[in-house]
Amino acid sequence: MVAAAPQLLTPALPPHLHAALIELVPYFIHSFGNRSRIDYGTGHETTFCALLYCLAVVGVVGPEDCQALVTRVYAAYLRLMRKVQTTYWCVGGWLEWVCMGWVWLGWMWNDPTPPQNTSTLRLEPAGSHGVWGLDDYQFLSFIWGAAQLINHPMIRPTSIHNNDIISSYASEYLYLDSVAFVLRVKKGPLAETSPMLNDISGVPSWAKVGGVGLVWCVCVFCVGHVFCVGHVFCVGMCFVLDM
């Protein structure tokens, strides 16, 4: 992965920006978990978003791309990482971490076939067993997902307790998709497995969920916490980001 990263990122940049690879590659590499600890968490998710921010700094993407960066690029990254979160493969005595071809070429596939003769294990959530992520691994999907649902005529924060709404709209809205993932991987009532998500469902509007509550949480528990920031790799371009 480390060796292939420059070649994988190069097609995303115009020729006059290839010099920026020296700063972009570290963000790319550190967006998919830690091979030594065999874990993944909100710090790595934040690193991926820092990569997107750096692409904006150098002019690859602009304000007109913001919605697509969330609903297409980040959503595709989320699908990939959920596959890694729930399954990783130990092949021939060493960890087959994540094939970078999946990242840029195969992440839209619904069911990539695992290698033969592999054993299935669960990827460890980073940060005190996932305490920093609403679903153990991610946080930003809930913030952007709540923003998607502001002023929705039917779906309310309490709708996460309606299985029909979750199954019907999870493919359209990040927040519902994230809740569906929690329900799929955790067994038991939401109030027991994810008490914070359950409490958030009592907030009267999506604007308060994403614009106040979750933004405050990500600033305090993720960006403002040493265990999460420790996973974020910062080089030159990111220093202009005012958190």
Molecular structure report:
- This protein has 243 residues and is mainly alpha-helical.
- It has a domain at 133-224: Phosphotyrosyl phosphate activator, C-terminal lid domain (Four Helix Bundle (Hemerythrin (Met), subunit A), Up-down Bundle), CATH 1.20.120.
- Helix content is 49%, strand content 6%.
- It has twelve helices and five strands.
- It has helices spanning 5-9, 21-29, 42-57, 66-86, 100-106, 140-148, 163-169, 174-185, 190-193, 195-200, 206-223, 226-229, and strands at residues 39-40, 88-91, 94-96, 119-121, 124-125.
- The strands form two sheets. A three-stranded antiparallel β-sheet has the order 3-2-4.
- A hairpin with a 2-residue loop joins strand 2 and strand 3.
- Helix 7 (163-169) crosses helix 8.
- The radius of gyration is 18 Å and the shape is globular.
- The protein starts with a helix and ends in a 14-residue tail after the last helix.
- Mean pLDDT is 77; it is low at 89-120 and 239-243.
Describe how the helices and strands are arranged.
Blueprint: H1 5-9, H2 21-29, E1 39-40, H3 42-57, H4 66-86, E2 88-91, E3 94-96, H5 100-106, E4 119-121, E5 124-125, H6 140-148, H7 163-169, H8 174-185, H9 190-193, H10 195-200, H11 206-223, H12 226-229
Parallel strand pairs: 1-5
Antiparallel strand pairs: 2-3, 2-4
Helix pairs in contact: 6-8, 6-11, 7-8
